[in-house]
Structure to design on (282 residues):
C-alpha cells in the first residue's frame, strides 16, 4: 500500500518540479499593452480606440458625456478589451478620481487627443456631420467664450491628464505620452501667415511648447513625450471638406500614427512629428 502510494507520487512530484523549474526560466506571458485615449467617442480618438482594440491592446476609451456615447458602447460590445470611462479633460477632479480608480494600472501610451477647433454650440450633439462655425475665430468677430473653451480643452486639458496619469505611465513598459497637435500650431512653417482660426492656431502652438517642456521634465523617468500632427483628416466633423485636395482618411492617418507611436523612443522626446514620423517644423 505504502509502496504503491509512494510510487504513484514520484511522477507527480517530478512533474511539479519540472513545472517549477520551467516557470523559473520561461518568460511570463506578456501583459497586454494599455492605451488611454481622451475624446475617444468621435473622429481620430474613436479610430485610435478601434485600431488599438483590434490589435488586442487594453483600451481605456474616455469621453466627457453624461452617458457613455453610442460609438463607444458599440465598440465595447465588439471588443471585451475596451473599457469606457468618463473624463472631461478640463476637470481636475474627474482626472484625479479616474487616476485613483486606475491606480496600479500601467498605461503604456497616454493619448491626449481631445480637442476643440471651432464653435459647435449650434450643432445638435448627435449631428456628427455638422461642420461647426469658424467665423467666430476671425479678428473682428471674436467670440471670447470659445477662446476660454479652446484654451481649457487644448492647452490645460493635456497638462491635467498627463500629470494625473503620470504614475500609471511611469509604471508601464512603453512609457509614452502623446499629444495630438496640428500644423496649425506652427510658428515658422508658414511663409506668410494667413488670417483666421486664431484661437485654434494659438492653442496648438501653446500645446507644442508645453509638451516640449513636459518632455524636458519627464526625460529623467525615461518617459517619452511626442507631439503628433495627424494631417488634414476627414473625420465625421470634417465631412464637408471631402472635395478638398490632400484630405486623408481617418483610418489611414491613425494607422500611421500608431506605427509612429510604436517606433518613437526616449531619443525622440520633445519632438513634433507628422503622422508618418517625419519631423514637423514649428
Ligand atoms: N481632423 C483633423 O483634420 C485634425 C488635424 C489636426 C489635428 N487634429 C486634432 O486631432 C484631435 C481630434 O480631432 P478630431 O478631428 O477627431 O475632432 P472631433 O471628432 O471633434 O473629436 C474631438 C473629441 O474631443 C472631445 N472633447 C471636446 N472637449 C472635451 C473635453 N472637455 N473633455 C474631453 N473630451 C473633449 C470631443 O467630445 P464631444 O463629442 O463630447 O464633443 C470629441 O470626442 C484634436 O486635438 C484636433 O485638434 C485634427
Amino acid at each position: 500500500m505504502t509502496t504503491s502510494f509512494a510510487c504513484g507520487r514520484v511522477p507527480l512530484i517530478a512533474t511539479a518540479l519540472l513545472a517549477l523549474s520551467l516557470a523559473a526560466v520561461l518568460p511570463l506571458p506578456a501583459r497586454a499593452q494599455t492605451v488611454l485615449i481622451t475624446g475617444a467617442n468621435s473622429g481620430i480618438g474613436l479610430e485610435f480606440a478601434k485600431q488599438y482594440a483590434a490589435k488586442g491592446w487594453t483600451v481605456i476609451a474616455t469621453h466627457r458625456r453624461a452617458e457613455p456615447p453610442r460609438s463607444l458602447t458599440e465598440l465595447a460590445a465588439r471588443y471585451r478589451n475596451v473599457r469606457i470611462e468618463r473624463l472631461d479633460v478640463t476637470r481636475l477632479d474627474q482626472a484625479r478620481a479616474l487616476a485613483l480608480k486606475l491606480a496600479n494600472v500601467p498605461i503604456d501610451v497616454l493619448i491626449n487627443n481631445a480637442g476643440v477647433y471651432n464653435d459647435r454650440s449650434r450643432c445638435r450633439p448627435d449631428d456628427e456631420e455638422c461642420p461647426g462655425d469658424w467665423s467666430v475665430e476671425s479678428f473682428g468677430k471674436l467670440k471670447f467664450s470659445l477662446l476660454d473653451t479652446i484654451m481649457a480643452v487644448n492647452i490645460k486639458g493635456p497638462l491635467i491628464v498627463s500629470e494625473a496619469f503620470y504614475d500609471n505611465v511611469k509604471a508601464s513598459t512603453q512609457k509614452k505620452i502623446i499629444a495630438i497637435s496640428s500644423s496649425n500650431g506652427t510658428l515658422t512653417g508658414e511663409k506668410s501667415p494667413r488670417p483666421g482660426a486664431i484661437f485654434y492656431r494659438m492653442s496648438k502652438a501653446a500645446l507644442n511648447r508645453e509638451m516640449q517642456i513636459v518632455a524636458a521634465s519627464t526625460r529623467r523617468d525615461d518617459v517619452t513625450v511626442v507631439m503628433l500632427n495627424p494631417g488634414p483628416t476627414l473625420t465625421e466633423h470634417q465631412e464637408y471638406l471631402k472635395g478638398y485636395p490632400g484630405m486623408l482618411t481617418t483610418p489611414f492617418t491613425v494607422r500611421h500614427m500608431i506605427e509612429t507611436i510604436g517606433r518613437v523612443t526616449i531619443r525622440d522626446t520633445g519632438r513634433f512629428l507628422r503622422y508618418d514620423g517625419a519631423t514637423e517644423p514649428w
The chain is about 40% helix and 10% strand. The domain at 34-120+127-274 is CATH 3.40.50.720 (Rossmann fold). The pocket of NAP is lined by residues 38-39, 41-45, 64-65, 88-90, 113-117, 153, 180, 182, 230, 232-233, 235, 237-238 (CB under 6 Å).
